[in-house]
Amino acid sequence: MSLVKITGLSKKFRDNVVLDSIDLDVKKGDVIAVIGPSGTGKSTLLRCIDMLEKPNKGLIEFGDFRFDVTSRNKKDIVALRQRVGMVFQTFNLFKQKTVLENVMEGLIVVKKVPKAEAEAKALQYLGKVGMLDRQQYYPRQLSGGQQQRVAIARALAMEPELLLLDEPTSALDPELVGEVLDTILKAAEAGNTMILVSHEMSFVRKVASRVIFLENGHILEDGTPRQVFENPQHSRTKEFLHKFY
Ligand code: ADP
Ligand code: MG
């Protein structure tokens, strides 16, 4: 069952073509890992799906909801963003808000959930990432790993149909990576549909149902972790993977 269908997604910055008519079909429960060299358009792909970048062309469909990415209709963009959650490399928590307030914010402001209900839901999701005991802390009082777990709770609490994670562990000290990967694995096992950009290859092998190798605006490789890691079709993929093994 197709959850999201992306067709002909294209993005250029001036004459730098970063995404060249990308097609991507995401099934419910898929965990799609996007790998590829630095500067190849992985972040741009995620940011275009959430309209944080304005693509030049393409269609994003969630079932009957059809979004032409050239639309600048605010209502349509809000409707798209209601379906998509994003976790950033640098967490991007609200610094002046507590952990609990961070997770409640989107529920109240975007989803218009009554405050008591938002609080209950925020606590529920903080529990899932093991951060209940830090609910009154401010981001600066937390480690990077803890901040990222709060950011994941914040995204999940919105119950998005599709969760995008852009190198969620690359800003962390090595000893903090594991706790965040465990949190992502749990979210995957709970059935959340995700697109994950990551260089953590052993984690990608474990968590992904599908791996995409992106290079120069094209999907060069698209298969199960086994297919892509053990039997890549392109020499560029082999060269890239060799850097990790
Ligand atoms: P990746 O995430 O794979 O490292 P990015 O999506 O960040 O790659 O970047 C892809 C290309 O787009 C790079 O050449 C980068 O310089 C360019 N790019 C990204 N964002 C911008 C921007 N806001 N303005 C101009 N060029 C950009
Ligand atoms: Mg990036």
From TrEMBL:
Source organism, top-level taxon: Bacteria
The record describes its membrane topology as: Peripheral membrane protein
Compartments (UniProt record): Cell membrane
Q: Which UniProt keywords apply?
A: ATP-binding, Cell membrane, Membrane, Nucleotide-binding, Transport
Under the heading InterPro entries, the entry gives: AAA+_ATPase, ABC_ATPase_HisP-typ, ABC_transporter-like_ATP-bd, ABC_transporter-like_CS, MetN_ABC_transporter-like, P-loop_NTPase
* Any GO molecular function: ABC-type amino acid transporter activity
Tell me the ranges covered by the ABC transporter domain, including all copies: 4-241
Q: Name one Pfam family in it.
A: ABC_tran
Q: Name one GO cellular component term.
A: plasma membrane
The protein depicted here goes by the name Amino acid ABC transporter ATP-binding protein
Organism, per UniProt?
A: Bilifractor porci
What does the record give as the organism's lineage?
Bacteria, Bacillati, Bacillota, Clostridia, Lachnospirales
